[in-house]
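ok here's the first one, seq then C-alpha cells
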Amino acid sequence: MSEIKEVPAKYLQIAGFLRDQIIRGDLQPGDEVPSERRLAELYSVARPTASRALEVLRRERLVEARQGAGTFVRSANAAPRARERLERAVELGSMYSDSEDCTFPFVGIVDGPAYVTDALNLPAGSRVVRRQRIISNPTGPVEFSTSWFPAALADLAPKLLVTSRVGGGTLGYLARYTDIRPTYARDQVCARLGTAEEVAALHLPENSAVLVYWLVACDSNDVPVEFDEGIYPPERFAFRQEFPVTL
C-alpha cells in the first residue's frame, strides 16, 4: 500500500491513490469504490478525511454516489503521465497496472529526429534507441508512447533493445545495472493534430487532435539520459494533480 505523506493533505493523497486505480482501469466504470469506513481503516485516517477524499473524486466526476448503495466509478477521462508512471514504478515495481496491456510496435536503433537529438543534447542526426509502446486497458488504447535514449546506452544496458517490459521502468533499469543515476526530470505538454502513425495506434479518425506529453530525465551532471514522448487521445485530455499552495 502506498505510504501516506504529510504533504499534500492526506485526503488529497487518498484521492490520488483512488484516481490512479480509476485512470489505469483497476477500478472499472460501474465498480464500487471503498466506503468511507473502509478507506479510514486502510489509510489510518478519520472518517471525515476519507469523506473529503471521495468528495474530491465526485467533483472531478470520476465517481458518483448512489443513495443507499455506495460510491461507484464513472467513465474515466484522464490518463497517467510519464511522471506518474515513474512514481508508480518506484513505489510498486511496475509502471503498469494489472489491467493494462503493453505492446511494442518497434524497438531498435535509428537516426534521431531533430527534436529528439535536441532534447537529448546530441549532435544532429545522432543514432538513438527508440522504444515504442501502445498501452491499452479494457476500454482500448489509452497511450502511444516512445522512449528515446542515446544509442551508446544500448551497450551498457542491452535490455533497452528488448521488445518487452523492463521491470521497474527503463530509468530504474539503468540505475540498477549501470552507473547512470537519473536525478531529476522536466516535462512539457502541448496539443496538435496526430500523425498517421499516432491516430492508427490509438484507433482514432484521421485529423484527430492528440495531447503530446514530453519528459526529459537527466543525471546529476544535467546530462539527458531519456526522452519520453506520450501521445494521448482527445477523450483523455484531462490531467490532474494536487500540490500545496503557500501564500
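and now the second one, same deal
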Amino acid sequence: MDKSWSIEAEQIRKTYGSGNTAVCALRETSLRIKRGQFAAILGPSGCGKSTLLHVLGGIDEPDSGRVWVDGRELYRMKKGERSIFRRRQIGMVYQSIYLLPSLNVEENIALPLLLDGKPLSAQRLQELLAVTGLTKKREALPCHLSGGQQQRTAIARAAAPSPAVILADEPTGNLDSRNRDAIMGLFRRLNTRQHTTIIMVTHDEALAKQCDRVLYMEDGRILRDTLLRKEEK
C-alpha cells in the first residue's frame, strides 16, 4: 500500500455477541490518515469510536475488512508478528493511565524498547523528557506524580519507539481543564516537532477542533470527515 498514509482501513465491520443480543459496533467503516496528521474521531458514547481505535491498533480483530499501518496489513500477520509490530509501530494512550507503579518515569518511558531488547538512547530520553516537561521528574515513581504528569509519562512511553502512529483513547477524560489543555499542547508539540501521526478518540467537540481533521461517528459509521487545517508540515 501507499506509504504516504500512516493508517488505512477498508470496510471494517465488528459485531459483539450473536442473535438477538448482537451489537454491531462498526458498519463497513473506511478511513485514511496521512503521515503527520493529527486527527480526532468524535462522537457520542457507544458510537464505535473506541472499537475503531482498537481495530486500528491491532488489539481487536475485525469480523471483516482490512487495516494497514505504515504500509503493512495488520490482520494478515500472525499474532506473534502482529504483537511485535504493534510494540514498534503503534503507540497507545488510554484514559486510564497504565504505568508500572514500581518503575520511575524514565523506566516507564523506556519500557517498550526494553521489551524489544533495545535500550532507549540518552538523546531520545532527553528529547522526550524535555517535550513532556518531565526532566525534573525522571526518577519519580508514578505515585509521586500528578494525574497530568502521569498521563504525560504515558504519552512519552507511547512515543519512545518513534512509532508510525499514536492512538489515544479519551486521553484527557480523567483530567481537569488545566491538565487537559496541557495534554493537548503536548500532542500538538509531538505532532509538529516530531511529525508524529496522532489519532485521538474524544466526545469533546472543543478538543476535536484543536486537531487538523475531525471524523464524526454515529452508530458505527463515519458520517462526516472535516479538514480543519491544511498541512504545513
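notes on #2: The radius of gyration is 17 Å. The first helix runs from residue 49 to 56.
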